[in-house]
Amino acid sequence: MHIGLPKEIKVKENRVALTPGGVGTLVRRGHRVTVEQGAGVGSGIQDSEYVQAGATLGSAQDAWAADMVVKVKEPIASEYGFLRDGLLLFTYLHLAADRALTDALLKSGTTAVAYETVQEQDGSLPLLSPMSEVAGRLSVQAGAYHLQKPVGGRGVLLGGVPGVQAGHVVIVGGGVVGTNAAKMAMGLGAKVTVLDVSHRRLTYLDDVFFGKLTTMMSSEANIRALLPEADLLIGAVLIPGAKAPHLVTRDMLPLMQEGSVIVDVAVDQGGCVETIHATTHDDPTYIVDGVIHYGVANMPGAVPRTSTFALTNQTLPYALQLADRGLDAIRSSRALSLGLNTHQGKLTYRGVAEAFGMDH
Ligand code: NAD
Fold it and tell me: Structural domain boundaries of the chain?
């Protein structure tokens, strides 16, 4: 199959959908790969690395002319002209939030497989979890930085030093983001408490961290009790398909100490802190009641190189199936069939159809 790798053109998107290693794997399997010039630059990957891996360099038109186009972000309006009948598109789409793109995909007849809806038998979302891993780990780095006095924080070093107590990191939600945040916070030497409503998750965390962190059932009372001693609060809750519940409400903020930090990773689902709103890497924080709020909605964008490799590690096996077997791969794989969002002018994903009151 001919596979195209265009450069991402959405503002501030520096990731790329295939690494040279991924291109090499596809080429060795007998596929032809066209990489748009400069596609990997934002992730520190040079054109020459793709050429060495067996790709041909070309323009955006050349990459989009392929049978299958592999991307990171959804096509933006200036890319709609590349959509066409017979094209297989494999990328993040988030169609329920994007009517214009949904219409463009349907009108063009594109077959679109969305990363975010590819789902394995056990219910896991393998193409979302790498970005949660990145955001979870980054949340502690961001929080530790904003706790420093010169940037407005309490002036607390999370790890403490001998003779001085460590900072306390309270993590609400012990899933992928929460577990990765806990790992980083413990690595820094902080005191860590994780709250979740799932006893199974708390048991798991207690087991893997040998009881070196504190686990607590997530309840309003427990959150209220922890806020006065939290130096860094990390929001990491997810209720699939729903807005995040507001677990830290505005009236609770005065319980926190001045200069303490909230990093609400769940901001992309509305946030689990009532006073959070989405911010950007250029202007990541603001203060409410003396508490620093960090609400960057695309945290992995800060570390595109790591994010590119993390994402492509997970997407490549599915991209290989699609390249080797085309539509047959979708027919025979439950995970890929759940990823299918549009095909020959039809909406094929229930959640998106319901969002727009359309048939599927
Ligand atoms: P996950 O499903 O792995 O974990 C969510 C956890 O929240 C689960 O363990 C669940 O039991 C728990 N939970 C549900 N209700 C709770 C409650 N009331 N109190 C405490 N815990 C509760 O999800 P994840 O992959 O860790 O993602 C978490 C959030 O981070 C999602 O909203 C996701 O979209 C977001 N995210 C944001 C970024 C970013 O850049 N800001 C990047 C990646 C992921």
Answer: 2-109+304-356, 129-302
Ligand 1 nearest-atom number relative to CA 239:
14
How far apart are the CA of 177 and the centre of ligand 1, in A?
Answer: 6
Does the domain at residues 2-109+304-356 carry the CATH identifier 3.30.450.20? no
Q: pLDDT per position in the chain (360 positions), as tens? A: 999 999 999 988 999 999 999 999 999 999 999 999 999 999 999 999 999 999 999 999 999 999 999 999 999 999 999 999 999 999 999 898 789 999 999 999 999 999 999 999 998 999 999 999 999 999 999 999 999 999 999 999 999 999 999 999 999 999 999 999 999 999 999 999 999 999 999 999 999 999 899 999 999 999 999 999 999 999 999 987 678 899 999 999 999 999 999 999 999 888 999 999 999 999 999 999 999 999 999 999 999 999 999 999 999 999 999 999 999 999 999 999 999 999 999 999 888 888 788 877
Q: Is 268 a catalytic residue?
A: yes
Count of C-beta atoms within a 10 Å radius of residue 185? 31
From 216, 237, 296, mutation site for ligand 1 pocket: most ligand atoms within 8 A of C-beta? 237
Pocket of ligand 1 (CB under 6 A): 131-132, 135, 172-178, 195-198, 201, 218, 236-239, 244-245, 247, 265-269, 297-300
Please name the residue whose Cα sits nearest to atom 44 of ligand 1: 132
ipTM above 0.95, yes or no: yes
DSSP 97-109: G-HHHHHHHHHHT
Marked catalytic residue, from 146, 268, 293, 343: 268
Q: Please say whether the structural domain 129-302 has been given the CATH code 3.40.50.720.
A: yes
β-pairing, 346-347 with 340-343? antiparallel
Q: Which atom of ligand 1 sits closest to the CA of residue 247?
A: 18
Query: 94 catalytic, yes or no?
Result: yes
Fold match, 2-109+304-356 / 129-302 = yes
State the Cα–Cα distance between residues 318 and 314, nearest whole angstrom. 8
Residue nearest to atom 29 of ligand 1 (CA): 266
Residue 5: partners with Cβ closer than 8 Å, 6 or more residues away: 16, 17, 18, 23, 33, 34, 35, 36, 39, 50, 55, 63, 69, 70
